[in-house]
Write a structure and sequence with these properties.
The chain crosses the membrane at residues 21-40. Residues 1-20 are annotated as: Disordered. Keywords: Membrane, Transmembrane, Transmembrane helix. The chain has one helix and eight strands, in the order αββββββββ. It has one helix spanning 11-41; strands at 45-52, 62-64, 79-80, 88-93, 96-98, 101-103, 114-117, 122-124. A hairpin with a 4-residue loop joins strand 7 (114-117) and strand 8 (122-124).
């Protein structure tokens, strides 16, 4: 039986079509946001500080030392400086630096991100295809 507009559709059928259109539109919008988020993650950059692991305080912060102590550390696992009173020096990633201390990061090298020291040296290029290291 035709409705007042003569379309032959009931108000319930019209509402159902609008509801489906809104749901599909919302799914499309969320999909675009998710794709944009993950695409932007490829451009991430992580900051690295060279730290002396023997200077860790109870609050989890480390003393930052000159980058040259970590330059031989191409694999991110740490290097031992050896000799009178010197400790082990490793890269500390993504930390918050306050003066000569850094904390809130990790000693585990993050994958698929570009890692740049505070001095501006790139020690790893991000993206797909494995880990690249700087130096030579």
């Amino acid at each position: 039986m035709p409705d007042a507009k003569g379309t032959g559709r009931s108000a319930a059928q019209e509402g159902s079509k609008r509801s489906k259109a809104v749901a599909l539109g919302a799914v499309g919008a969320v999909s675009v946001l998710v794709i944009a988020f993950f695409a932007s993650q490829d451009d991430d950059e992580t900051t690295a500080d060279c730290v002396d692991v023997e200077t860790r305080l109870p609050d989890g912060t480390y003393q930052v030392v000159d980058e040259r102590y970590c330059e031989d550390d191409d694999e991110g696992g740490g290097s031992s400086a050896g000799g009178g009173g010197h400790g082990s020096y490793i890269w500390y990633y993504g930390g918050n630096r306050a003066g000569v201390r850094v904390g809130g990061g990790t000693t585990i090298r993050p994958a698929d991100t570009t890692i740049v020291t505070r001095g501006g040296t790139t020690i790893q290029r991000g993206g797909f295809g494995g880990r690249g290291t700087g130096g030579g």
